[in-house]
Structure formats: structure tokens, C-alpha cells
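Recap from last week: sequence in, structure out.
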Amino acid sequence: MKNTVKNKIVIAVGIAGHPIAAAGNSWAFLQWVLGFQEAGWDVWVVESLHSEKLVDATWAKASFEQSANKSHWDSVMARFGLTECSTLLVDDAAETLGRAQDFATEADLFLNISGHFRSQILKFPKAKKIYLDLDPAFTQIWSLVYKSDMNFAGHDRYFSYGSLLGQQGCLAPTCGLEWVGVFPPVVLKYWPCQAQQSEFVKFSTLAHWQGYSWCEWEGQWYKGKSEEFMKLTTLPRGVEAQFEIATEVESNQVELDCFKSEGWNLVSGSEISQSFETYEAYLRQSSSEFSAAKGGYVLSQGGWFSDRSVCYLASGRPVVLQTTGIEKLIPTGEGLFTFSDVSSAAEACQALLENFQEQQGAARALAERTFDSHVVIAGMLNRL
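Predicted C-alpha cells:
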């Protein structure tokens, strides 16, 4: 008789902690949850919050029952059929805590994304514990220089979206840990390749304009994404195409005025990210992603790649991304282009435009070959 016992994994996420205009953030975690399910694993999803962090839809403090955190968590779990295999802990309490502990006791793996899960209430007597770093360079500098507790302790293996961490040419520290590179996965069935666009519509991206505070390492400052975008304001002068950024337009009007004057289109990122439907439609209605990367990723050259960009690629939308060293890991020119300054950005965009029809298919092929959750997860498991 065929053995039907599934491997079990507990995956710790950061979904409820970001409950407003959060479709993109939620997808970053869901790709792993749904990816392991697609790979045949039995999955339990957990998150831990403190009650003082609970907010309502206006960001005012709220009770758990009235919080946007609970509402968003319940909605996401229901949408993806995860309600019966998920636990949201608030101050280490939850109705499903007993069931979660029973599952954890039998779990083979515990995947702690960004080290979000700090609670000690769940016990994993036999699971191998994996730390997954989504913010290479920043994570390590925060720990080493600023003494922030990034929750490294207690894990057996350390993976990172910085696939070049610890290798020659990467400037980021390692904190004395061995970091294993892994690409962000995409679950292809949720991101179908739609019919090719006959004409190019626009380059687009979604970005938080003001993200992390700058951090310093060995005399150099690791900055955010807005600082890198500011180097690209004149790009539309050299490319006959529409460029659009979805971001926090109203709260950054002064800084964004120079983009408007150069012909960029600016739209509200929060409106696009308010639901899965609006987020997914925005990516598919674009022709290609064009984006700067956070300055820390650029400076460190750690090989970071975007969990949003893999969704563009899977949808058949080629990507033009500021270099993070990723071209050392993935050939460019077929679905993916990289650039280092405004001149090379214009060249990359022009190359894509001249071969737009073929580049759409190449984007999907790259997603299938490199970022498909089956491929990414199998690679991770092989390196445990």
C-alpha cells in the first residue's frame, strides 16, 4: 500500500502584523505557504502579535475582535482555504493553540520567515528550524552594528534572498552565520500567464517611498529605494514609453514633484494594494516592471531579487531591475534586464521594447525555470 503520510511544516508569517493596504506584503508570505502545499506538504500557518500592536482600519489602537489585524488575517486565511490550519496568537493566546501545538509536535520543519515568530509557547521537539531572511544586508547590519535582536538564535539553518551573502564581492556582513541563498518563489497557478499584449502599455512598479532608516556598515550608508529612484528621474527623456510608480503620493508630494515634471505617472500604492484583486490586476495590466532596488541591496551586491518581480514574470511581464548582483546568478536579456545607472536603464528598457513580443514569453519561461515554487522549495530542501 502506498504511504500517504505527508511531511509537516509550520510556517511563521507576518500577515496580520501588516493589515492595511497589504496585498503585496501578504503575497510575500503566501508564496511559501501555498508553495509547500503545492509540493505535497501538510502546512500550519502561525503568527504572533502583542495586543498593544493591534489597530483598526484608521491605525488607531483596537481590541482584538475589532482590529484590522484579525479582520485581515481571517480574510486571507479564508480566501486561500487556510482557516482550519492556521493560528494567530495574541499575547500567546489563541483558540486553536492546542491544535497548533499538536501539529508542531509532529512537524518536520519550522520555517520562520524574517524571524517574525518569537513566541516560545509552541514547541518543536523534532522539527528542523529554518530562518529565512528577506532583507539581506539590512538584517545582518541591524544585528551586528545596531545590536538589534533579529531572532537568529535557536535555528538550525539560515537561508536568505541574498544569494551571494558571504561570497567574494558581496559587502554585507554575515554575523558569523552560513547563509544559503534562495530565490523568492511564485506559485504559478495563482499567477497565470495571460494573453500577450500586442502593444506596450507601460512600465510600472509598486514601492514604499519611505522605508527603512539608513544604516551604516564599514563607513558606507545602506539606503532605501527612494534614494535610488531619485537617480533615475530623467529616464523618460531617453525612452519613448510610459513610466509609472505606485507609491505614497500624497505624503511625499514635494519629493515626487521632480518625477512629475519629467513625465512619470504617479498613482496611489495603497489603493492598488488594498485587495488581492486590485494588486493582481495592476501587475497584469502593466507591460513590464521597471524598478529601482533599495540602496542597501545595490551597495551590498548580495544578489537580492524581488518577491513582487516574480509575480510580474509569472504573468508574462518582463522585468527591468536595478542590479543587486543578480546577473551573476540568472542570465539577463531574456525576460529580465538589469541596470546600474540612468543610461544603462534606458538601454535596458529600449532593448525590451524592441523585442517586446518575445520578451513576454521569455518572462514566463524564466518564472517557470527559476522561480516556480516547486523548483525553489526543492532546492531549499536539498540544502538542509
